[in-house]
Write a structure and sequence with these properties.
about 400 residues, mainly alpha, two-stranded antiparallel ribbon, about 50% helix, Hyccin, membrane
């Protein structure tokens, strides 16, 4: 099915005129069926019968790149990992080697034919970004010496290139050429479909694990249970430290869209780096591994949800009731005198003593209205004065005294 679709795709481009190439290039950007078919053929070309199918594909991709159309150029660049992995495992494919050399020589020079240099700056903590505000740094970072140390990163530009051109791929320049092509592919990963990233991760795992015994890859997860990875009789593929570093860079970007296979590919790269004793690869690989472990967008395992329960000591408006309910009335002792006539006090937030004191203090500030003052009972001395009414002078004095008390 894939080979038939690719053969029709090859015949279609040959019948186009120059005026139809632009429209054809726009259509190829969304031709996912042909892309997936090409990935399948380049991943395992021995499954398909036509012997010259790989030659036709490589010639077609080279014509796409030289056509000058940006869409056709991106279409070719997305197959760089598949072509590189195919060349590393099977060097008898001369058409693949020719295509890789052509792409490399055309990418390392600019439009004027001069060696190309790509420069970029590493972000510094001394300058604000979308991730942090430099004005909120601690006092230790704002010191003159510390800030000068952080600002040194701005004056140092990281450059890629210039790289020399090559005539053919051999044991001396093969790793360097493949590493440069992987760097160029990583810059355009945003335009690659998800199926292409999956094939790339599977290709990385196959390259770094081919030729090893089953015991070293026995703990592989089910997401990468590919039969081609289990051929321990095949020779091991030589890989250099810079190439594995670039593969880690590729895996880091692939994890955003294909987390499961990217994590498995990273695990295989770390295992191969441990075997080769590449310290820089182990440092970069473990850093990416720890970042994936704590990243919510990459972690495949579901995170437990934390439920926040209401504390028993929390007090709300519903905790206060205006009146006592029957369940709240204490059981009285029958031997004690009941105070049924006394009304029940309402429950308030403050204590009862404080409430009574506040009421008494509030009554003192109220204005006294005539005729509404509460009359107090006469004391015993006043009663005795009223009973002894024989003495007139004494009675008048006591009456005046009684009146004075009631007025108070």
């Amino acid at each position: 099915m894939a080979d038939t679709l690719v053969l029709d795709w090859l015949d279609e481009f040959e019948s186009l005129t120059e005026s139809e190439i632009h429209t054809y290039s726009t259509e190829q950007e969304h031709n996912h069926e042909v892309m997936i078919a090409l990935y399948s053929i380049l991943y395992d070309p021995h499954k398909y019968k036509p012997d010259n199918l790989i030659d036709g594909i490589c010639q077609q991709l080279l014509n796409f790149y030289r056509s000058g159309e940006p869409h056709l150029k991106k279409f070719t660049m997305q197959f760089i990992p598949s072509l590189a992995f195919l060349h590393l495992t099977d060097k008898s494919q001369t058409s693949v080697q020719t295509l890789l050399v052509s792409l490399y020589n055309l990418e390392v020079i600019d439009s004027k034919g001069q060696p190309r240099t790509v420069s970029f700056r590493i972000p510094s903590i001394a300058q604000s970004s979308i991730y942090h505000d430099s004005s909120t740094l601690e006092s230790a970072f704002t010191a003159q010496n510390s800030l000068r140390r952080w600002e040194e990163c701005n004056s140092k530009l990281i450059s890629w290139g210039p790289l020399p051109q090559v005539e053919c791929l051999n044991a001396q320049n093969r790793q360097r050429v493949v590493t440069a092509l992987m760097f160029l592919y990583t810059r355009q990963m945003a335009d690659v479909i998800q199926q292409g990233i999956e094939f790339t991760c599977r290709g990385i795992s196959r390259i770094v694990t081919q030729g090893f015994s089953m015991s070293s890859v026995s703990n592989r997860s089910s997401c990468a249970s590919d039969s081609s990875l289990q051929h321990s009789s095949l020779p091991r593929v030589p890989v250099s430290g810079p190439l594995l570093i670039e593969l880690c860079h590729l895996i880091y970007h692939a994890a955003e869209r294909c987390a499961a296979m990217a994590i498995q590919a990273l695990h295989d790269v770390i295992q191969r780096a441990s075997y080769e004793c590449y310290a820089e690869v182990l440092l970069a690989g473990n850093a990416i591994k720890n970042l994936m472990h704590h990243s919510p967008t990459v972690s495949a395992a579901p995170r437990p949800s934390h439920s926040h329960g209401v504390s028993k000591s929390m007090i709300t408006n519903a905790s206060f009731r205006t009146k006592k309910l029957p369940d709240d009335i204490p059981i009285q002792d029958p031997n004690q005198t009941t105070q049924s006539e006394v009304p029940l006090d309402s429950i308030t937030e403050e204590h009862e003593d404080g409430d009574k004191k506040s009421k008494a203090g509030a009554l003192k500030h109220l204005p006294k209205l005539p005729g509404l003052s509460k009359k107090h009972k006469q004391n015993k001395q006043g009663e005795q004065v009223e009973m002894a009414g024989g003495d007139q002078e004494k009675g008048n004095v006591e009456i005046n005294h009684a009146v004075h008390v009631s007025a108070v």
